[in-house]
Specification:
The chain folds into two domains: about 1-65; about 65-125. The protein has four helices and no strands. It has helices at about 5-30, 45-60, 70-90, 95-120. It starts with a helix and ends in a 5-residue tail after the last helix. The protein binds protoporphyrin IX containing FE. Protoporphyrin IX containing FE binds next to helix 1, helix 2, helix 3 and helix 4. Protoporphyrin IX containing FE (HEM) binds near residues 8, 57, 80, 111 and 115.
Amino acid sequence: MSAYLILKHLHMTAAYLTVTLFALRLLLDAVGRPGWRQTPLRWIPHANDTVLLVAAISLLFVTPWMPFVHGWLTAKIFLLVGYIIAGVFALKTTVKTPVRVAAAVIALVQVTAIFHLAMTKPVFS
Ligand code: HEM
């Protein structure tokens, strides 16, 4: 398998895992099980997100795609920053519940937009 295919599969697997792990932590908090913070679920998402980003940056070296040249990729990077910020608020136990719920919705909308952009790669003029 080519380096491109390995990196793309790695990136996509990590992408699906990041959403699954985020949703799982939201769900555990929602059903009153905040104890996941004392389990490997505390660090596994961070390890996965590191793989996601390393594969993403590596893909830039083996594909013609360039941030700030290709709009879908630029938009993806801005949405990624938004997803990270909203995700932090959504999982913070010191933040009030309505703010956490709003942050969770915003994070999920943003990550959905990231998937949509990645899969359709629209050309912005
Ligand atoms: C949460 C963050 C991210 C998610 C969920 C995500 C998800 C995905 C998915 C699902 C694909 C495959 C789309 C397809 O062809 O079917 C993809 C492709 C790609 N991603 Fe990401 N991505 C993320 C962040 C990034 C970042 C930060 C970069 C670059 C700095 C990046 C660079 C790329 C590139 C270049 C491709 C195109 C590979 C190709 O089709 O040749 N991604 N992404």
